[in-house]
Design a protein that fits this description.
The complex is a heterodimer. By secondary structure, chain A is of the alpha/beta class. Chain A has a single domain, classed as 3-Layer(aba) Sandwich (Rossmann fold), CATH 3.40.50. Chain A is globular and about 55 Å long. The C terminus of chain A is likely disordered. Chain B is built from 17 helices and six strands. About 2% of the residues of chain B have low confidence. The chains are: A alpha/beta, B mainly alpha.
């Protein structure tokens, strides 16, 4: 979608967030260079969503800094961060229910391009609709879409926002295997268009196969950062996951080719 | 395309009709007898004022999702600004109206910033508190504002107005009629343009989900404050001009009851359409005025009987269709059954109104020792009527009564959820999921 690739650089330095006495995130640092496909995993309450909310500006960090493409974004408003090139979805689907699919897509496009004409942006929206195979739904209210379609619509809105880094919060939670394949395909296709992804998921099989790099959070601390192979062998990760419920056990090295897991 | 042309044509006809009403009286003083007179013009002028309030409230609530009870207070701010300026500074009406509009906008800015973090219920409570405080301050500061006695305001044209050789007296209804109509049309055009632009799109996104809108790059704070400022200015303008028209303003113009009526106008017309709520404003206010007169008890009885009988007959016919013809009512048959039930109920209601009234009256006499009054004072009952209509609309037709009709005839394709389409979409989703 974008002609010349922009440089992508996200730099998180010593990020800490306290909620009263509770330390939700402690001294987290990592960097993303270029169109990486990063998985963010960790047991419940590890601070994954807190980290997302800090990156997207919904929360301000207690201490630490975030740089996006050389620009400091911590403390900025969510809309400024969105325009600076970081888009996200929410754990629960949040489409604009009493607006049509087309209008849903136009919101981020118009927010990004203050001067572009509506016609131009609608043309762009049709391309996205085609990509999602959604053309027949363009003028339906978002609320009349199925849950899976609304999830795809959210991904479509992100395409219209055209950010450098896309954060997906639980994209595979509670979706039909067929739709999961579609979302999987979306991620790889869009990633190939020079966009970095941070994907939060509890679906270990998928996330280990999909991502080239994994960040593991536990009790607010970044306990591992590396390729899936490295992470799988990491003693700290094994300990963190063995201490948790059994269903979140790491996949054995053998079945990583499988793309569909049962959540 | 054709439908757009028809919609525009209907709009222009409506405006021309409104513009010609005053002349029916002047050209044919006796035709139609008693229908168009000074009082009619007065009702319409105030109706235009309420149309401005209802349509700007629907921009605030229907588009922005900001449930405000302070809209009449903003109109009051406009009115009292120009009234007090005229009284203590001797300013011209036009200066006062402009100042009133700006003052309402300023208050809108402050209130808009104060309520940024408040959602739905809390916003409603906050704005009720603000509206009541403003009204009570005006009431309490009698020495300055005349309080409940009412603040006298100069008429729009204290020395009358000369146009093309005609002289209009300061109490003539014609100049304020056209001024109010023009302001209504201008504010409607302006707000419709805003609603159709990115401003309206962002407002609706904010109404649906603030966090999601912000995450997609919408400057939520800016648009929320902006919609408060703009709608407050429209309300302030309407209030200021009305103040110069009625020439006396009291804090009672701003009571919650009237605010509720503005909400009723907006909801009955259609909260998501500026034009529908403006029409709702005019229609509801005209009805309010004409229902004020005393009604014969027998006529009220006819209406009551019709309202009770029509649904009864419809449900009976539905039962009969299922029981004896083994087919549920649907489509055209259903429409026919509804219309037939209404007509039959009306005929029966009119036919039996007198014996039923007499019978009930005697029963009432046996219990209380007095007969029904011949006429019923509607001044309170009309409010009950609109209260019930509001409740029914909110329960059964959340899009309003007029807006769905407008959508059905003028906006095919978009914004339409037909059963067939939903089924098709579901089928496609299923094949996608299952293939």
């Amino acid at each position: 979608m974008n002609a010349q690739p922009r440089p992508i650089h996200l730099e998180v330095r010593n990020l800490t967030k306290n909620f009263g006495g509770l330390q939700a995130l402690n001294n987290v640092s990592f960097e993303i260079h270029g169109p990486e496909l990063v998985g963010l995993i960790g047991p419940n309450g590890a601070g994954k969503t807190t980290l997302t909310n800090l990156l997207d500006g919904a929360l301000t960090p207690t201490s630490g800094t975030i740089y996006l493409n050389g620009r400091r974004i911590d403390g900025n408003k969510p809309y400024q961060i969105a325009r600076a090139g970081l888009g996200r979805t929410f754990q629960v689907t949040r489409s604009f229910r009493r607006m049509t699919v087309m209008e849903n897509l136009l919101v981020p496009a118009m927010a990004m391009h203050a001067t572009a004409s509506r016609k131009e942006l609608e043309k762009q929206a049709w391309e996205v609709l085609e990509f999602l195979t959604f053309e027949h739904l363009a003028h339906e209210y978002a609320r009349s879409l199925s849950g899976g379609q609304q999830k795809l619509l959210e991904l479509g809105r992100l395409l219209m926002l055209d950010p450098d880094i896309i954060i997906l919060d639980e994209p595979f939670a509670g979706v039909h295997p067929k739709l999961m394949e579609k979302i999987y395909e979306y991620i790889t296709t869009v990633n190939a268009r020079h966009k970095a992804f941070i994907i939060i998921s509890h679906d270990m099989d998928t996330i280990f196969t999909l991502s080239k790099r994994l960040l593991v959070l536990n009790f607010g601390e970044l306990i591992a950062d590396g390729t899936p192979e490295e992470v799988r062998r990491d003693p700290a990760v094994i300990e963190a996951y063995l201490g948790e419920e059994e269903e979140e056990e790491l996949p054995a090295a053998g079945n990583q080719a499988q793309t569909e897991g049962d959540t | 395309m054709m439908r757009t042309v028809i919609a525009w044509a209907l709009g222009i006809i409506a405006v021309v009709f409104l513009a010609l009403i005053p002349f029916v009286y002047d050209v044919f003083p006796s035709f139609p007898p008693g229908l168009v007179n000074e009082y009619t013009l007065h009702v319409l002028i105030v109706g235009f004022y309420f149309a401005m309030l209802a349509s700007s409230w629907s921009l605030l609530m229907g588009y922005g999702g900001q449930f405000s009870f302070a809209h009449l207070a903003f109109a009051g701010i406009g009115a009292y600004t120009t009234g007090l300026m005229g009284r203590y500074l001797g300013t011209h009406a036009l200066t006062g109206i402009i100042a009133g509009t700006l003052m309402a906008g300023l208050f809108g800015l402050v209130i808009g910033m104060l309520v940024l973090r408040l959602r739905k219920t809390y916003l409603a409570l906050f704005t009720i508190a603000f509206a009541e405080i403003f009204r009570l301050v005006i009431s309490a500061e009698k020495d300055f504002t005349e309080g409940p006695n009412g603040l006298p305001v100069e008429p729009l044209f204290p020395n009358g107005l000369n146009i093309a050789g005609y002289h209009f007296d300061k109490v003539d209804k014609l100049p304020p009629y056209f001024i109010m109509l023009a302001l209504l049309l201008i504010s409607l055009a302006l707000m419709s343009w805003l609603a159709a632009s990115r401003f309206g799109l962002f407002l609706r996104a904010i109404r649906e989900d603030e966090e999601a809108a912000a995450a997609l790059g919408v400057d939520v704070v800016r648009y929320k404050v902006l919609v408060f400022v703009i709608t407050s200015m429209v309300a302030g303008l309407a209030g200021a001009v009305r103040a110069h028209y009625v020439t006396v303003i009291t804090p009672n113009d701003m009571i919650i009851l009237w605010m509720s009526l503005v909400i009723t106008m907006s909801v009955l017309g259609g909260i998501e359409s500026l034009i529908a709520s403006a029409i709702g404003g005019i229609v509801v206010f005209v009805l309010l005025e004409y229902l004020r007169t005393n009604f014969l008890t027998t006529s009220v009885m006819a209406v009551v009987l019709t309202v009770i009988l029509a649904p009864t007959l419809y449900y009976l016919s539905r039962y009969a269709a299922r029981r004896w013809f083994n087919s549920p009512l649907k489509g055209r048959t259903r429409t026919f059954a509804i219309i037939a039930a209404a007509v039959v109920a009306l005929v029966i209601g009119i036919a039996v109104r007198e014996p039923v009234t007499t019978g009930l009256s005697y029963a009432y006499y046996d219990m209380t020792g007095s007969l029904f009054p011949e006429t019923i004072d509607m001044s309170a009952w009309r409010l009950v009527f609109f209260g019930i209509v509001l409740m029914l609309t909110l329960r059964f037709y959340q899009n309003g009564l007029l807006y769905p009709v407008m959508q059905y005839y003028f906006r095919p394709g978009s914004l339409k959820e037909t059963v067939a389409k939903r089924e098709a979409a579901a089928a496609i989703a299923e094949t996608e999921a299952g293939s």
